[in-house]
Design a protein that fits this description.
The protein is α/β, with parallel strands linked by helices and 291 residues long. The strands form two sheets. A seven-stranded mixed beta sheet has the order 4-3-2-5-6-9-7, sandwiched between helices. Strands 1-8 form a two-stranded antiparallel ribbon. Strand 5, helix 6 and strand 6 form a beta-alpha-beta unit. Helix 9 packs across helix 12 and helix 11 packs across helix 12. The structure holds S-adenosylmethionine. The site of S-adenosylmethionine (SAM) has 22 residues, from strand 1, helix 3 and strand 3.
């Protein structure tokens, strides 16, 4: 089968099958071999690797992954693409296609069944409308993920990499920092896709930490505190956390924790680093236990 990483071959496959792009599935297919090579290189794939690809489309990147990896499992929601994938990937016996919504797949179970629970590398040109739930799901649901190398919307890549004080800083930045080391591989302009997206894109690699960089008594509480802080971004932490229906703390308890940490009573969440959020969550945890 011809290499699909160029516009001519992609158009040929699409026309042959009368495929109609579906906007609701975020379908923008890669048509640039340089970008594809860069993604494969950045993911550091070897023949020992098991790769999970999310949204193979017509199988463009899947072909590159199948060449480089030991085994590839690709999850595609659009059933119209399944017969096309059968054809474009016919030459590879190390690829499994699953016709399913990735958000409904038990990825930890899949990694266990297909790879004996060993570490998985995730590589994808993601459907942008569900970037955050996909990434958070991979980190939070016990999947043995080693790294995630993905194409995302440029603004989202910036949010993942930003720190306190920046307008892009938020819950996603902190979650990414907690779980992984983020590295921006490349910015990718709209003309590398068919059809062209309205937004800029970027490839980012998230390499999972062996141990989180901060120690917390209660991980769930840390993320509840982070979410509540950014849900009400303009509010002070005292008000935002004290009024949050997700959290059991009064405004006074939050004020006491901030005071113990030597922080201003009017500080906002956007000013706190991951270390400070961890310290705050640990303080709140301790204060909640005092009768
Ligand atoms: N990998 C292909 C490429 O690079 O040319 C296609 C990438 S395209 C940006 C995103 C792909 O994800 C589409 O094929 C789309 O149908 C698929 N997709 C969208 N939502 C999905 C979901 N919930 N689960 C699995 N696949 C999904």
């Amino acid at each position: 089968m011809a290499n699909l990483g160029n516009p001519k071959n992609t158009v040929e496959v699409i026309q042959k099958h009368g495929f109609m792009f579906q906007k609701k599935f975020g379908q923008n297919f890669l048509i640039d071999t340089h970008v594809l090579d860069k993604i494969i290189r950045a993911a550091g794939i070897t023949k020992d690797d098991f790769i999970l690809e999310i949204g193979p489309g017509i199988g463009t990147m899947t072909q590159y992954l199948a060449e480089a990896a030991g085994k590839v499992c690709a999850v595609e929601i659009d059933r119209n693409l399944i017969p096309i994938l059968g054809e474009t990937l016919a030459d590879y016996d190390n690829v499994t296609i699953i016709n399913e919504d990735i958000l409904k797949v038990d990825v930890a179970g899949l990694a266990m069944a297909e790879n004996g629970g060993r570490p998985v590398k995730v590589v994808a040109n993601l459907p942008y409308y569900i970037t955050t739930p996909i990434i958070m799901g991979l980190f939070e649901s016990g999947v043995p993920v080693e790294s995630i190398t993905v194409m995302v919307q440029k603004e989202v890549a910036e949010r993942m990499k930003s720190g306190p004080g920046s307008k892009d800083y938020g819950a996603l930045s902190l979650a990414v920092q907690y779980y992984a080391e983020a590295y921006l591989v490349a910015n990718v302009p709209p003309n590398c896709f068919m059809p062209r997206p309205k937004v800029g894109s970027a490839v980012i690699r998230l390499t999972r930490h062996r141990e989180p960089p901060v120690k917390v008594t209660d991980e769930r509480l840390l993320f509840q505190v982070i979410r509540a802080s950014f849900n009400q971004r303009r509010k002070t932490l005292q008000n935002g956390l004290g009024n949050s229906p997700e959290l059991p703390f009064t405004k006074e308890t939050v004020a006491k924790a901030l005071e113990d940490m030597g922080l201003s009573p009017i500080v906002r969440g956007e000013a706190l680093s991951l270390e400070q959020f961890a310290e705050l969550a640990n303080h709140l945890c301790g204060l909640a236990m005092i009768p």
